[in-house]
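Quick one: structure for this chain?
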Amino acid sequence: MSKARKPRYSEVADQLMFGIAQGRYPLGSSLPSEAELCVRHDVSRHTVREAIRQLEVRGLVSRHQGRGTYVQRDHAAAPVGLLMSTVDEVGRYGRLTHLVDVHMDDVVADGALADLLSCAQGERFVRIRGFRVARNPADQLPRAWSEAYMPERFAELRGEIEGFKGAIYALIEQRFGERIDSIRQESAAIALSGEVARRLEVKRGTAGLRVKRTYMNRQANPILVGLNTYIGTEFTVVMDLRKAAINGV
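Got it. Here's what it folds into:
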């Protein structure tokens, strides 16, 4: 049986919560009007009102008759969804978070790892492991167990990764002149293994979400593969896909 789609009002609420967490809607500011939100998200007024009600329940906003809806808190107790539709938005998430408790080692892809990374057996990588957490606790972004596999040719970056303020792929771009042209993202519902469950402080077999991103340069060659694993109830990826503009339409 296919998984039921998340209600549209919940998707709109997730996007508004992320905007508040990012500072797009600062404390004390008003949200766009219901009419503006209807147009922006292509939804009905009823859907917008229910989305705002979700924010009210979480204490993020308050509604004032005749004056609008105002932001009263910049973080929610409930999980925040992440809106990512471009390479830049993925990079923004990297800037909102950082790696802590970082460990690095050299690995050679065996059969299982080669399948996971979509590479040839025998390829060599620097494996970077640690927790990806919000730089600002007020952002309320969920903690992830992070594993990244960086091709051996970038190994000289080892000493710069832990203190770098941004995504690892951005460091590769800066130091090696690479340019990310596309990111392939794959999200999978998984049962957390013993090791990952222990690190995320939950029971083995707890539902998890693994987000795998393969960063490719202009020649369509991967320069980094990253896997972030979250407790399934704490993380939502919102993909806002826009139709490409067509001349004359």
